Amino acid sequence: MPVPAHVTPGPAHATTLRTCGRFGPRGSAWDRLACLLTCMLACLVALAAGFAAATEPVGTTIVADVPTLTAVAAPASGQIVFCLDGASAAVIAVDPRMPETRRPALAASSAEPRPVAIACLDSNTLAGLCVDGDAWSVRTWRVPVDGAADPAAPLQTIPLGRAAERPAAAPRLTLGRSRDWLTVVGLPAPLPAVLRAPIAGVRLGPASDRGCPKLNADTHPVAAAAGPADELVIITSGQRGAGDTVPGGDDTITYYSSTGRQLLTLDTGLRGIRAAAFSRGDGSLWVVADGPMPGLFRLDATFDAGRQAIRGTPAARFTAAADLVSLGDRTTAVLVGTPERRLVRYELDGTEKDAP
Q: What DSSP line would sit under 107-176, residue for residue?
């Protein structure tokens, strides 16, 4: 039986050919049947391997020469990705489909306050969660077409309060689908874990915890995203504190209404989730996680023993993911790698539902 053109012959094919070579016209019917079955089995194995390789998405590197990237953001159009360099505090803007098209968005700065997270209010307005000693704030900048914004000259500065401790995981900025609100998730105590600021055009109102979820003191948010119905989704770590010898469980996802009411809490079945993002159109929820295997997962609704549940379906494999952003229905950009980070684009064709 010929080897499929897209499959490279390997040991299985060689063994099959050698085995079948012992049988010929003079062999018994059982011999010929055994030969046929062996050939069919080998080809099925090879086809399965080829199918798995074909359906595994191949990432396209967008940025590889800025090894200290820490966060990414994109406007609703998904036509540009803003990347935060944690070392210089600069932000660069890159076209995810034409990586050579790149420009500075926010100039580098060695002085505080420095951004630790970013979000896009629109294609030309950048928001940054900034820290200056123990003082936290949200700042916004208008990004010029022909240059970089001056970090010392923001459009707005929204003070959030003071906290001496640094959070265990990097806080997140989450923009609502309606673009009516900007949420800060994961601030350290004694600040509220969740704060929200209303948006009017590109202007932010005062931030407060009114209408925000009230998280328990021992809860550690690790990711947040805004859902298709403008609900706030917060993922919390299942790992316990450093001094606790009891192993932690899986990370948990909780949906909250626009008024902060808890709607649904589910076990994700994943550990070490670093970031989450909803697809722009179909509403799929993507996360990057460390386990049970490191990579990109789609969280799918399912039923377990008659109860609503959620399942992480693997979509792409990579290690040391730090952040991700959705660029369209089936396209994501992911920060991967350690110690040197790369920004990689993945085109997902929907076959991830068949992954093991």
A: ---SSSSEEEEEEEEETTEEEEEEEETTEEEEEEEE--TTS-B-TTS-SEEEEEEE-SSPPSS--EEEE-
Q: What is the DSSP string of 255-302?
A: EE-TTS-EEEEEE-S-BS--EEEE-SSS--EEEEE-BSSSEEEEEEEE
**Which single residue is written with the structure tokens 């940025």?**
63
How many domains in the chain? 2
Q: Which residue has 């994700």 as its token pair? A: 268
Q: How many whole angstroms separate alpha carbon 341 and alpha carbon 333?
A: 13
| Distances 30 to 24, 42, 117, 256 between C-alpha atoms, Å | 12, 18, 68, 65
The residue type at 15 = T
| Percentage of the residues of the chain whose pLDDT score is greater than 90 | 66
Tokens of 99: 């990586």
Q: Do 49 and 167 lie in a common domain?
A: no
Q: Are 273 and 289 in contact (CB under 8 A)?
A: yes
Query: Which residues have C-beta within 8 Å of that of residue 333, sequence separation ≥ 6?
Result: 62, 72, 74, 81, 96, 324, 325, 327, 343, 344, 345, 346
Question: Nearest-CA neighbor of 114 among 146, 94, 143, 91?
Answer: 91
Nearest in space to 140 (alpha carbons), one of 94, 203, 214: 203
Neighbours of 173 (CB within 10 A): 22
Each residue's pLDDT tens digit, 175-184? 999 899 999 9
The candidate with the shortest Cα–Cα distance to 263, out of 286, 229, 300, is 229
Q: Are residues 92 and 208 in the same domain?
A: yes
The pLDDT score that the predictor gives to residue 348 is 85
| Structure letter (DSSP) for residue 198 | E
The more confidently predicted of residues 12 and 120 is: 120
Distance spanning both ends of the chain, measured CA to CA: 28
Residue 290 belongs to domain with CATH number: 2.130.10.10
Say whether the peptide bond before residue 206 is cis (omega within 30 degrees of 0): no
Partners of 276 in beta bridges? 287
Same domain, 90 and 44: no
